[in-house]
Amino acid sequence: MLVALIILTPIIALIYSSLKPTTTELPFQVSGFSFANFVAIFSNPQILEVTANTLIYVVGSLALTLVLSLGMAYLLERTDLPGRRVLGSFVLAPMATPATVFAIAWVLVGNRVNGPVSLALQSLGINFNIYSLYGMVIVTAIFSVPSMYLMIAPQLAQLNTELEDVAASTGARWATRMRRVVLPLVAPATGAASMLMVVIAIEIFAIPAILGLPNRTFVFSSLIQEALQPAGGVPNYGKASSYGVVLLVITVVMLTFYNRLLRNSNRYQVVTGKGYRPALVRLSVWRYPLLALILGYLVIGILLPIASMVWASLMPFMQAPSVEAFRLISLDNYAKVLGMPTLIPTVINTVLVSVLTATLVVALTYWIASSVVNNRFRGARRLLDSTTLVYGVPAVVLGTAILFLYLWAPLPVYGTFWIFVIAFTTRFLPRASRMMHTALLQVGSDLSEVASVAGASRTTIAWRITVPLIRPAIIRTWLWVFAHAIGELPIALLLSTGSVSTVVVMIWQLFEQNASYPEASALSLMVLVVTLLMTLLLNSSATRQRTARR
Amino acid sequence: MMSATDSSHSPRSHRDYPARTDAATGGLDDGKLASGLRVQQLTKAYSPFDGDAAGAGVDTVSFEIPSGSFFTLVGPSGCGKTTTLRCVAGLVDPDAGEISIGDTVVFSSRTGHNVSTEQRALGLVPQSYGIWPHMKVIDNAEFPLRHGRLKSRDRAGSRRRAMDVLERLGLEELADKWATDLSGGQQQRLALARALLCQPEILLLDEPLSNLDAKLRTRLRSELKTFQQEFGVTTLYVTHDQGEALALSDHIAVMNSGRIEQVGSPRELYERPASAFAANFIGNANLLSGTITSSGDSVVVQTSIGMLRCDARPASGSTRAVGDACFVCIRPERVSVTDTHPADPGAGTVRARVESSEYLGHTQQLILVAGDVRITAVVPTDVQAAVGGEVTVTFDPQHSLCVPE
After folding, report:
1. Can you count the helices (H) and strands (E) in chain A?
2. Could you tell me the pTM of the whole model?
3. End-to-end CA distance of chain A
4. Which chain A residues are closer than 8 Å to B55 by Cβ?
């Protein structure tokens, strides 16, 4: 019941709000229903522009991230590229980097005034401006590579190499083998991953906001936030919630396709032989050129933005790296950030929220997933599926819905960190319950059945058998939620008040409102260190599980 | 009839598999002219850096397959048999050696010659069959003709040829099914059809029966042999199952830790194993360790249960001199057991206690203990041998072999 309350009420509240004839008043204070909001947004020519922007943004970043992820996944999983293990972990390194931090780092390398990449391109006669639609596309694509790679790489790794070997033995050339055998076989998984990527791209807020707001290039997610928290002026709740419903419909459609694709992909499951061991496609002369290509991507896509951020955090004001500027290096910005009176309470609040959210999510998802696996009560399956529904709710929309709900509900959570915990738990429940469900499915029911035949109670089985067996998954889920709760921006932005906020919101304010880039960089780097640490832990516990299963 | 040597002229036309013309020759008028395979001094070592990609190494492996015959590499897992096959296929680059398919050198470490997999005239049936799950049965079979070495624009022609082979393998009714809807046995036949449609000089089969259940395995084993003979294609077969090797092959090479222990016909391998390993791997063998006390017309070996006389004909590749340590190898069915007690047990006759007995229907298997050695004997069911009782065991010198340690 509680889970249903957490999951479903925000969605109902959102739809309810969108049907209220309100603009500036809170939806629950207005009586009557109308489609006025929808009429308003659909008759406004802005919707065309925003739709076009969103379309270009989503399709563009999807295409770019697909090319990057597929190419690298193939090279790193199926060929004898030198150092592919190490490169693989570098590709995944920015996995838990908050989008806010990532976008700021790219502003630092790509802005026209003093960004090194932009300046280098200008010297080649190319005018590159990060504050643009294509800037958003590039940054989002690079930002999404780790998650896309994670979805595609296992598919490519599992694909029995004998399928490719046979094709080679028939005399088919490499290009034919790729086109006729490898790509069609990973197509369902790639398609499914793409659907998911579309949903993610639609809802990513920090990147389009940071790169689009300066020249008023809006996509749906940034428009909703703009409607709720305009830079100057009154929030338009009606507009926000009806845009939210539009966005919700789009993502739910996408997810339906995703689920269908996933189901169809079962036909493609390939039985591997007993003595199966991955053999590698030999690149011969192409090894080093391709290695250089990947290294180039890693340097420009990941290393350079972070380096620029480090540079900016050491400078008193923004400037391109130069020898003269070296004299100006100091840790003043760090001192300034640490000296801010709001920092300590904000950090405490962030840690508290993240720890509570991660723990709550792990407990809830374990309960849901084990109920499904053991068929503990009727509707357990439906409960798990209903969490997927929230998956389709973009963070901005979810934040809006929760804001409306608790402004109205007689629960005194607004203005405390509890509203963050509730919102974040709702937000991360779907992904986490999938992770947990997969892990529990792998354990298999016979292991716990044996224990119950031996006379162990259900609690004993959970505590002695199931939990120890899936401990790596539990740790991973916890770390994943923790890292993402730290980095969550749109919800936090909507829910934060003067007294309760999170670190990422603070970065946002330093960057957007105060335009103090060096200080924002310093704070970003501190967050980055924490999330990178989480990724490191995440990867190491993931490896441990993989070896254990073998 | 063309000969294999004039392959310069119309290189593959004579290897075309036409529609069924004559069941007796399988439509192949010159099946025996298919080129053979020669592997010389093949060496491949893996380093720890190869990680997951590392297989078992092979060490100076040499063998030759006469054209049209069925050659099997047999050995325990990790003996390098699959690595050898993958080197022949060009899927693994050897460190050293030379591989020739027919008259064509496809790999030579001496000249640096290395023909890529897609240009070698091969057909491959991998362990998992490698049936592409995103294609129909007919598309799988037709792939070599449409996208492979034999690529042609003639859609109708390639379809007809694919259908012909499918028909001959009894798959014609399944042509429009999804490949994943086939049973294990049908998948194997499809994989075979596809490999044959590559018009291979060498057909490579990598443990194709290992994923099947026992009953199906026996049936498909004879089926495979029939198809191979019908199409007359030179075949390199890799397996760890000695039963498959004996039943299918014209010649067998027993491999052990990257080396070939012995090459021979199934009968030679079973009746005259050249090493204790070969004796033990092909069939069961009693191996009694001892020392040679006399050689010449007949070899006599001193074992812990007494003097045993062995067959004087040397097994291939073994030398023996007085004083050498060796094993006396006797197959269980060559051990004779009686419950009579001759007053004067001569050489080759010992008293033993029956430790256990298993009734197998057509025979019985006895585990006998004489002194400190255990002897397995497979004897007719009318031999009286109660567990715990004493029997007389006779080793026939004709069937006792002296193999090197």
Report:
1. 27, 0
2. 0.74
3. 39
4. 277
